[in-house]
Structures are given as structure tokens and as C-alpha cells.
Request: fold
Amino acid sequence: MGRDLSALFDPGSVAVVGASDDPAKYGHAIAAQALRANGRRPVHLVNRRGGTVLGRTAAPSLSAIGETVDLAVVSVPAAGFEDAVDEALRCGARAIVAITAGFAETGDAGRARQRVVAARVRAAGAVMVGPNCLGLADNTTDLFLASDTFTPGGVALLSQSGNLALELQLRFRPHGLGFSRFVSLGNQADVTLVDLLTDCARHEGTHAIAVYAEDFADGRAFAEAAAAAGKPVVLLTAGRGDASARSAQSHTGALTTSADVVTAACRDAGVELVATPRELTVVLAALHGARRAAGRRVAVLTDGGGHGVIAADAVETAGLTVPELHQPTQDHLRTVLWDQSAVANPVDLAGMGEQHPGSYAESVAALLTAEETDAVLMTGYFGGYAAADGGLGGGGSALADAEQAAARLIAARHRTTAKPLVVQSMYPASPSCRALAAAGIPVFSATEDAARALAATAPRPPHTGVTPLPRPAAPLHECGYLPTRSALRAAGLAFPVAREVHDEPELLAATQEFAGPYVLKALHLLHKSDAGGVALGLAGPAELRAAFREMHARLGAASYCVEAMADPTDGVELIVGVHRDPRFGPVAMVGLGGVLAEALHDVAFTLAPVTAGRALHLLRGLRTAALLDGARGRPPVDVAAAAAAVETITAFAAAHPELAEIEVNPLLVTPHGVLALDSRAVLA
Reply:
């Protein structure tokens, strides 16, 4: 169910501790905003000097108010913060908004102070946002405890940046978007992003949740909450570079970046991941009308060939298609357009729009009803035709009137269908385009934004959610090659027969137990191949002994492993690994493996553990997936066995939190099953 945050968003009363008449102080802005809703609930202003603040009598302390305070906003210097929180709790506060800075963001000492305060808040049964936050607002309950005013709407914004909220306010306005709630996350000492996301998911006034986060803290819990939200969750995050791979000790670690992890978590949880505030706005605008396309087929409508071709390219770049229209649709379009118009897709009015703006409406109606289309993108000059008649401002010219009449017809046609319609215009602020926007049709100035908006409405593979972590198994205390191999074998992963040897007599004894060809590996080397510690295809005892003498003279390893060499004929080598991310926990990687794993970089990521069904989907999504089904006359390999092996490896890794990294590379997949040919692990 999540934590009860009702006192945070709809308190019975509010007190602003640190309220001030000084406009330079944050307590002034918060107090002014809080008083905007004075009729909804009692609002008390507290200033240690008493007197008046903003024309209201100020209490010198919370205790002096003489009644219970449900929510206290604390905006005082750090030296007085703990005392203010303690007094708020004594006065019955169930919620605290901690504006005060100077805690975890300053280092270990501040982090320790913060932990103590948070523990006292929880012990009292209260909740606290912050410290080091910029406040919150809830337009559905008239609670205004941030320095700025937010336009009402259906988007809840949970953000680690206050300035970003101001930018989104500006970007939202042309699209008719607004905020149900705004929360500045601050240091998340008590109330976390996950707590807030869970609460917004059940908030009736919130229709979509926008998140800006630089630090997820518990990223796995975030993904779980987002997957269960039942509402669109759009994430803008920073710090997704590859710095985390610099200290990696395996191929898996070297190939796994923060961006890969976040992308995988968002895909698993069904979160829309965006890169900029502009893209965040585009996606929310597209989702605002709750329209979803049934497929990925887009019809492009334009009155100029250049705009049409550019839009078609943008649509395909966004992962959608621009198919040729069926003959009945083309025939119908020819009855409403003139001879020079192109009707295959893109549909180009070829100048007819300037003579007859209503042709846009007729074409949109045809494209929205065509069975071979799932969405329509109208692009180019619509909105600007009135300029040619001197009436861009809607001054009553014939062309301006005709264009606005066309906009009304387009809006009416749009209301009769569930298909998404998106518009890109050179004149997005024109009266005609504003009329479209008012009717719930997203209008953008950039072609790539329109294409991205349509991509947001397109069907996505059902998100898998986050598979729960298994109970921890007995921890591994050794992670050398043989202990790791043995543990994976016990978990159900097949390996070739092998023996550890220390000298030539033991080497020759191994040849009596199983036939060649053989593989010889020097142990206690993490990257055995890179160090020249692997010899393959040794036909018999003589070749094996010669390889042993040469390798031992060069490396002087304490022990070696003799293995039966698997037959790679008709096989495909995969890599399967798990890297433990500090925020998201175990993250699995599957892809084309062998010695070229890093060079080829054909890999896919997902949160671990991975079910066999999910593994099969990932394997089928690789660029080189055709190799699994046979190529150039080779037989198909046992992909189901490979998927089962992925499940075994990732479940094992997820059950061993003491492992920082583990991988099997190569995992040889043949037409008859799988064999793990090498493995490595690194203890955290």
C-alpha cells in the first residue's frame, strides 16, 4: 500500500517556521504562497521575533500557537533545524517539509545529523520531505508550499531540481499541460522518490507522473513502483555515462554502463525514458489525451514535398513505419484532391492547401479512417496560409477564415476516432493551430518532436515488470575458476568434464579419465585468454603435455585445469553475465560472446533474475539473432536451452549478493543443447 502521505498533501493545518518579511529569504516566498489558500485550512506563520509577517501576526514559536499543527514547513538556519523539528513533533505535526540545507549534501557529518533527525521523525509516526528541498505544492488540495505558482493540471512532478520545474512550467503551457502536484525531493532522508511515486499513482487528480532524478537511491524499488503505477511514468535523469565501467574486472562489467542499466530498468518497468525537458514535454503532451495507437503505421500529410519526406524520415527514425496506402484509400483521396497531389504516403496536397485549406480536413478524415493507418502526422505549412492573405493574426481574411474552418473540421474528425493525430507546423502559435491544440491535438514546431510524440502513443511490448529477488543463498567465499564452475554446475548449468592438475603426472592421469581433444587453462587468472593462459584443440596426451610445459614455463601458475574440448561445429557462442549495480542491484547482460564480445558489443540488458521467457525475447532481439536460426546452411541452435541457461545463471547471481560480477563466456549453444565453456566471478 505504501506510506500514508495524507498529512503531507492535505493537512488539516500548516505552520511556516521561519516565515519572514524579507523578500530575500525563502521563508518569505513560502509564507506568501501558503497564505494563498488561507480559506482551505489554518495557516500559521512562525518567526522567533514574533511581530507581524506579511501583515499577519506571527507566533514566536510553534508551541505559542496553542493548537496542533498538522504540517510544519521548516525554513530556518541549519543550527536551529533539529530544535525546530523536535518542537514540531511535540506539537503533533504529522508531516514536515524541511527546506533547510546543510546536511547530507555537505558530507559525512551532515549525513549523520540527517539520519538522526529522520529517525526521530519516523519514531514519532510522522513523515518528512527533504531536508535541502524547495517545498511542494498540491493544486488538488490548494496546498502551496513552494516559492512558485504551478498551473493546475494532471501531471505530478517529482524533481531534484527546482529550476527544471520552472522550465517545464513554461514548456507545458502551449500544450495545455499543468501540475497536480510538485515535490522537490531534496535529500530524501525520510520520504523517498519511491514513496512519492507510489502515492501519486493512487492520487485521483494525477494522470501522469514526471520524474527528474539524479540519484535513485533504491533504483530497483523505483522500477517496481513504476511498473505497478498503472499510469504513465516519464523519467528524465542525468549521470548515465560510462564511468561505472572504468573499474570493471569482467567483460560484463566493461560492457555495462549506467545508461544501459537505467534504460533496461525503464523498459522492464514500462517507463518512458527521455533525455531533455523538451522531450519530456513532448511525451507528456502526446499522452495527455490518453489516445494510444493500435500499431506503428503512420500516414504523413503535407502540402510540400520537402516537409513530407523529412517527416517520413523522422517517423521511421522514431521506430515507426510509413507504409504505402491501400488502393481504396488512394482512390478516395484522388476524389477530394487535385491531379498533382501525391496520395501514396506521404500524402502531398501539392499546393492545394493554399487554394483550399479544407482539403486538409478532407485528407485527415480519409487517413484517420483508413484501415492501414494507426496514426496521422500532419506537417508543414498549416497555420500559415493566412499569412499569404495578410491575415495571419486572424483578421477576417477569406483565407484565414477558411483555414480556421478547416481546423474546426479537423478537430471534429479527430473526435470521431481513437487514432492519434499529431501536427507539426511552421506556425504553431497561429489561431488555427491553437484551435487544434485546444481540441486535444498535440501541435509542435519541430518535426522530430511530432515523430517522438507519435512514438510515445505507439504500442510497446508488454513490460515484464521486475522479477523479485530470490532469498540469498549461502555466500560464496571463493570466486576462482573452479569454485565458480562448481557452484554453477550445482545450480544446473552444464560444463565439459574437467580436472584440476598441478604437475605432469596429474596431467597424464587426467587423460586416462576422458579422451581428447583437450583444453588446458592456467588457473588464478581472471582473463586467462588475454594472458595466454588457454590452449585449445590439444589432440592427445603428447600435445597436452607439450602445452603444459610451455605454459608453466611462461606463467608458473600454481595449478591448471584440463577439460574435454567441446565441438564448436554448428554452435554459436554467447556471453551471459550479471553485474551488480549499486542502485538497481543485479543487472543481466546477454549477447554474442567469445573472444570478440567487447568488439562486437551485440548485447542486451535487463534486471536480474531473468525468466527463460524473458531471456528468449532478449536473444531474439540481438542484431545477430539470425545466427541462432542457422545461417549459410548451418542448422538452428537450441535457443530454448540457451534461454534456460540464462535463467539458471541470472538466478544464481541474484541469490548471491556477495558477487559484484559473474559471467559465463562463452556459453556454447549447439543444435543439441548448451555447454558453459568458461566462467569468472568477482566478489564485491
Q: What stands out?
A: The longest helix spans residues 398-415.
